[in-house]
């Protein structure tokens, strides 16, 4: 046997064993590590579709492209109180059930017009868990979009401090 071929085969096997665990991911866990929230993969997918509905992709990237659902999850996990985190988890389950009941199908299977019409009815639903969840998600989605690298580099024009002089500015 050729020694070089044996070493090459050994390296292929070692590389394969390093990559193999990434291929078999548990389907009951979220993609990112969260300390205080327990979110399943299905909940993460629902949140991803909700964020994409709030910030749809046009000429600019949307919520999915900017991975805003990870931002929302991380901000709720790190920056909100335990009561808000519990309300977020309950609100996510309430949103899944409410959207299934209203649409007659899962939220992810509806088209953009149906999703937008559904989100406009959240305030009229009368469910406090649902409205607080939607408020948290909407606020954090907007915050994540406005602070994303794409927006800060391509859409916001930076002006060096103190800015330009405007002699007609009312004092």
Task: Please give the structural blueprint.
Layout: H1 3-23, H2 41-54, H3 68-79, H4 82-103, H5 112-120, H6 128-146, H7 149-155
Helix pairs in contact: 3-6, 4-6
Pfam families: Gluconate_2-dh3
Protein name: Gluconate 2-dehydrogenase subunit 3
Question: How would you describe this structure to a colleague?
Answer:
Pfam families: Gluconate_2-dh3. InterPro entries: Gluconate_2DH_su3. It comes from Parapedobacter luteus. By secondary structure, this protein is mainly alpha-helical. It has one domain. Helices cover 61% and strands 0% of the residues. It is built from seven helices and no strands. The protein has helices at 3-23, 41-54, 68-79, 82-103, 112-120, 128-146, 149-155. The radius of gyration is 22 Å and the shape is extended.
Short description:
With 171 residues, this protein is mainly α. It has one domain.
How many domains, as an integer? 1
Low-confidence stretches: none
Percent strand equals: under 5%
* Principal-axis shape: extended
Distance between the termini: 87 Å
Number of helices: 7
Give the oligomer, counting copies of the same chain as homo and different chains as hetero. Answer: single chain
| Secondary-structure class | mainly alpha
Described by strand count, sense and barrel closure, the largest sheet is: none
Proportion of residues in helical segments: 55-70%
Mean model confidence by pLDDT: 87
Give Rg in angstroms.
22 Å
Number of strands: 0
**H/E series, N to C?**
HHHHHHH
InterPro entries: Gluconate_2DH_su3 (IPR027056)
Pfam family, one: Gluconate_2-dh3
Protein name: Gluconate 2-dehydrogenase subunit 3
């Amino acid at each position: 046997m050729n020694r070089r071929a044996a070493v090459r085969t050994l390296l292929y096997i070692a590389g394969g064993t390093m990559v193999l665990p990434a291929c078999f991911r548990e389907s009951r866990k979220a993609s990112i590590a969260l300390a205080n929230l327990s979110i399943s993969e299905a909940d993460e997918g629902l949140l991803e579709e909700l964020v994409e509905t709030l910030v749809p992709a046009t000429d600019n990237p949307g919520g999915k492209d900017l991975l805003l659902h990870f931002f929302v999850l991380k901000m709720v996990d790190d920056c909100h109180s335990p009561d808000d985190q519990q309300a977020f988890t309950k609100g996510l389950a309430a949103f899944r059930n409410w959207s299934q009941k209203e649409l007659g199908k899962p939220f992810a299977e509806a088209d953009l017009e149906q999703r937008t019409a559904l989100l406009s009815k959240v305030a009229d639903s009368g469910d406090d868990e649902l409205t607080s969840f939607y408020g948290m998600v909407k606020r954090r989605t907007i915050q994540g979009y406005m602070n994303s690298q794409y927006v800060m580099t391509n859409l916001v024009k930076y002006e060096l401090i103190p800015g330009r002089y405007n002699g007609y500015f009312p004092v």
